[in-house]
Structures are given as C-alpha cells and as structure tokens.
Amino acid sequence: MQLPIPPSLYDLTREQLTDRLAEWGEPVFRARQIWHWLYQRLADSIDAMTDLPRALRDRLKQTYALGRMTAVAEQHSSDGWTRKWLFRLADGSEIETVLMEYDGLRRTACVSSQAGCAMDCSFCATGQMGFLRNLRAGEIVEQVIWVARALRAKTDGDERLSNLVLMGMGEPFANYNNVMEAIHRLMSPEAEGGFGLGARKITVSTVGLVPGIRRFAEESVQVNLAVSLHAATDALRNQLVPINRRYPLRELVSATRDYLRKTNRRVSYEWAMIDGVNDTVEQAEALVELVRQTNPRPDANLVHVNMIPLNPTGGYAGRASRRARIEQFRDVLARAGIPNTLRVRRGIDISAGCGQLKAETAQAAPEKQTSG
Q1: For a designed S-S bond to 255, which of 42, 113, 144, 210 qualifies (C-beta 3.0 to 4.6 A apart)?
Q2: CA distances (Å), 151 to each of 49, 54, 338, in order?
C-alpha cells in the first residue's frame, strides 16, 4: 500500500506556516527562521535547518516534504549558457524548467505554470500534448528555487537568479490565482527572510486570455506583461493560436490598450518567426497597425515586438524564418518606428522550446535521476 504523499513546505504561505507552528506551540520567530532557510539559504533538506531544535525538525519531516519534484532528465546546451530540466511531480505529472544565462549577471529562469496546456497552439510542443492540470503555487515556486540552487552550486554562491519568466509549459492566466500567489511569494523582501526578486524582473506571458489581462491590470505590482501574438490578422491567428476564436484581435488589443492606460508599463508582443507563414510583409504591415491601435496615445511608444525564430517541434511542419525574410519583416517595423528585438534562439540542441524535452523523453529512459 502506497503511503500518502505529504504536502511540501513550499505549498505553505507565510501565514499558514506561522499558524501551523503556533498550533505546535512554537514561538513566532521560528516561522521567519524556516522562511529564511526556504527562500534565502535555499535549504535542500529539513535537516539542513540547523538553527531549529531537533524536535521541530523531526516534526516538520513527519508532516511535510521540503520539495516534491524529481528531475528525470537534465540537459546542457553546447554553448554552455542554457540548461533544461524535466521534472516529475508527486502525482506523476511532468513539467519543464529552463535556465538561460547571458553575458554579465543576467540569469533567467523560465518556469511552467501548468502540466501541459489547453491552448493548442499549432507550433507548440506543449500544446500538442494536451492539458493535465494546473500547478500549485508551491510547485511554481519550487522550480525557481531549484534553478537558484543550481546557480549557487555552479558558482559557489557568486551568482543568483536575476530574472523570472512564466513562459514555460502552460498558460499562466488560466492558472491565475496560483501564478500570482507564487509571484508574490518570490517578491517577498529579503529583509523579511524572503527570496527578494524584484517585480520588474518578472514577466508573465499570456497567449491572449482577455479576462486575465484585464484582471492583471488591476494588480498593484510592477510585473511585466508579454502577449504571445504570432499573427496580426484573425484569419492567420485562428490557425496558429486557436484561443483567438474566443478572444479575437479586436478584444485582445482593447484589453492590452486598457492595461497600458492603467499601468503605463511597456508590453511585449511575442512573435515566433515561421518561414512563409507569419514573416510576410503583409503580416508586418498588419502588425504595425495593431501596435498603433494598442498604444493608448499617438505619442506613446509602449509596445515592443520580440521576434524569435521558430523552435522546431515534431508535431508541426513549419520551420524558422530565413534571415532575409526576418530582415524584411523588421525593416517594415523599423520604418514605422516600432521598437523591436530579434532574440537569439537558445538551447536548440537541448530541445529548450516549451514541451520539447518531455516529448523527446516520453518513451526514453531518464538521463539523470536527481531529487530535491
């Protein structure tokens, strides 16, 4: 008979941890000590929390797990700048997490918000595998902690995670409450024993869930918003991003414009460059018009277009745009004064695109077994 799986300490809010310790008759300061071990010292076991009494550590181990993810595959890119993990959760669901390192001190974690995804974007490996479930806030947080530990181990503590993007498996706004709880938890100030990640270092990427964008506009945080656009006409976007049939571009642009009016924060339009599909001059011209409609004022310049050549997947026949087509597309944006960036594809040799590592290892033996 299989024993029940204990909850993780990362499933608890600070208030829940404090209340539980109070039930056990522990002093209030113990909650801050444990929080400090979880979010600053990145403890990899409850026994590592050496300033807690042995009796309390034993009770914690009887009641909670420190973490409930197991790495069943880990890959390193040949350029040495990208790492990817496939994690198995306590119920057998699998998710992916990526660490991207850049020159300087920028170290970015790309984490999942769901196991699988229901958005069914045609070119996305996660969409091709379907939806399993939402992740709990603690499961989102634990991915970030894992990456932070990996950075610390690699550099003997000299580097720390600088940025977080919720652009991995899943649609963050389809799991809104857990995503925002995880974000608030990770933003908890270092002075209070928290992880201390700045709001402006966090980006949430949505495929275009209009109610989520409108709700996000009411949040009192400075977290960044990215919209995975990929097409500037409803006819093409319906093919690439099926949720567009429910929330067409007119509604998406209206919600994004209202977000900009309320927050005055820049929004990124994300664009996977697919050869001969959405890299045409016609699509570029339509994108220029959408950007103009999105900016809340004629003199505003709050929309930035991020382009990245398509990451190939086994379930989609399209390929990355050729350089000449990309330059032609960018030229249309540049002549219209639209800020844009061509991103370098990272980790192509290790299947770093969302869902690709899970798809590749579904029938294969795990490469590396680790647990956290």
Answers
A1: 210
A2: 20, 29, 36
Residue 27 near residue 37 (C-beta atoms within 8 A)? no
For residue 55, the enclosing domain spans 9-63
Q: Give the total number of structural domains in the chain.
A: 2
Distance separating alpha carbons of residues 247 and 255, to the nearest angstrom: 10
| Active-site choice (110, 117, 121, 354) | 354
Catalytic residue among 96, 101, 139, 142: 96
Phi, psi of 59 (to 5 degrees): -70, -40
CB 347 within 8 A of CB 312: no
Same domain for 37 and 161, yes or no, is no
Residue given tokens 């389809």 in the structure block: 174
CATH number at residue 297: 3.20.20.70
pLDDT per residue as tens, the chain (372 positions): 455 778 999 999 999 999 999 999 999 999 999 999 999 999 999 999 999 999 999 999 999 999 899 999 999 988 888 999 999 999 999 999 999 998 878 999 999 999 999 998 988 877 678 899 999 999 999 999 999 999 999 877 678 899 999 999 999 999 999 999 999 999 999 888 899 999 999 999 999 999 999 999 999 899 999 999 999 999 999 999 999 999 999 999 999 999 999 999 999 999 999 999 999 999 999 999 999 999 999 889 999 999 999 988 777 888 999 999 999 999 999 999 999 999 876 655 545 455 455 455 444 443 333 333
**CA dist., res. 12 & res. 31, Å (int):** 11
In a domain, 3, yes or no: no
> Do you know the residue count of the chain?
372
The single residue listed with the structure tokens 């530990």 is 149
Q: Annotated catalytic, 96?
A: yes
Strand, coil or helix: what is 287?
helix
Residue of 42, 64, 60 whose CA lies nearest to 52:
60
Are 220 and 326 contained in the same domain? yes
Is there a domain that residue 341 lies in? yes
Q: What is the phi/psi pair of residue 337, to 5°?
A: 75, 25
Residues 124, 42, single domain; the answer is no
